[in-house]
Amino acid sequence: MNHSMNTPRDCERSEDLLAYLYREATASERKSFEQHLTQCSACREEHVAFGGVREAFAGWRDESFREAASFYPFTEKQRIEKRSALVAVREFFRLAPVWLQASGAIAALVVCALAASALVNADARREQNRIAFSTSSREPQRDAAPTVDAPSQKHYTQQEVDELIADRVQRGIETYREQAARGSATTIVAKDADRKSSAPDSAASSVSTDAKENGARRRSRTTTTPVGARERQTTVARRSNDDGVPRLSDLLDVVN
Amino acid sequence: MVMTDEQIVARAQAGDREAFGEIVRRWQRRIFALAYGMLGSAEEANDVAQETFFSAYRNLQSFRGEAKVSSWLHRIAVNQCITRQRRQKVRRESPLDAETVLGETQIASVTHAESPARHAEGRACAKDVRQAVGSLPPELRQIVLMKEFEEMTFQEIADALELPLSTVKTRLYTALKQLRMKLEKHAATETVE
Q1: What tens digit of pLDDT does each residue of B88-128 get?
Q2: ipTM of the assembly?
């Protein structure tokens, strides 16, 4: 069969021509048809002509889509807004002038450095089933419950804090007593609910009920000055924290 | 993760109105472009796009997922365009009328050998192509649009139209031949003028 004598109408490979034209032929079909094209002038001529028709289609299609884009500007805007951050950054570095690209890069590096510095200096600890996070510039406010010590920093348990406070108060009381023994008729009675190390002055002291509520580690103190009409009686329990631990400064004010 | 059209339509069928809005947002520009490609009028294309989505919404429950959502919408839009063209033809207002009177006998008078095919087709503007496509018989025009606008494969077109694969290729081949002759004829007329 002489393919070169074929006309488009009697060539049996019109379907192969379409598959080749629209790039839907397999590799072997493509190779076979390319070989056929060298022999069949009709298919060759038609392949060129149909390619021209497809080019005309492309212009027609492009015009239609341009018109659609201009008719639906909001949709187009929406499409741009939906671009990912990565695409936006890439677009910025593609379109921005060099000086702006450099400034942007430096600013990004500074921000990253600051963030890294903050993370390095951060102090995270677990307190009563929650995570407390702070930077080194601020001490976290601790609750009454014992804390889990960070490896690099000493923390005190509530019991240790109580003992420190009691010692400081006791020393203050003793100092005051010494001053009172030297000439003042003022007496002071302090009672430690947990340690019970010093004998309570039952006539002049009272104990708060925090121990009942919060266990043996919690305490409160009532300091009374029996001089005159007990005008200096001050209760410092529950002054600072919900757990009943008084502020050390308040205690010192009382005893001094 | 981006949902497929079919998943969104399934949600719309379950009563999610927002989901159908997403379908409209995704496809309104392409539907408009298709209608504009067929009708050549932005206002009419917009009308067709609105009618297409309105019709799709009304018939949402009848969509069974056998064809792609895009094919479904395109088919509705093409039918809307054809209906409009028929009305225009009846009113003798259609710009396609002049082209439609170019019967096969006239077109056949242009021989392949004497026409500078590639030159003529290269010069064909969008309007000429639109008129040429509009003058095709509906069964050929539909396949051209599915191939060139929807960029469907032959097998997808065959599945969507429930036609044999060879029939789809034969129809497209016939359509391309007719379009080639129409465009060559148009180019030859322009050259004479």
Answers
A1: 777 754 444 444 433 333 333 333 334 445 444 444 578 88
A2: 0.72
Cβ–Cβ contact B53 with A under 8 A: no
In chain B, residues 127-156 whose CB comes closer than 8 Å to chain A: 128-130, 133, 147-149, 153-154
Sequence-ordered list of residues with C-beta below 8 angstroms from that of A244, at least 6 positions apart, any chain: A144, A208, A210, A213, A214, A218, A219, A220, A237, A238
Asked if B129 lies within 8 A of A72 by C-beta distance, the reply is no
Q: Is the pLDDT of residue A140 over 70?
A: no
Mind listing the domains of chain B with CATH numbers? 1-94 (1.10.1740.10), 97-193 (1.10.10.10)
Nearest to A124 by CA among A133, A115, A114, A136: A133
Kindly state the DSSP code that residue A224 receives in the 8-state scheme: B
pLDDT of residue A38: 92
Distance from CA of B186 to the nearest CA of A (A): 13
Rounded distance, CA A109 to CA A116, Å?
10
Asked which of A133-147, B10-24, B69-83 is least confident by mean pLDDT, the reply is A133-147
Q: Which helix (H) or strand (E) holds A133?
A: strand A130-134
Instruction: Compute the nearest-CA separation of B19 from chain A (Å).
Output: 16
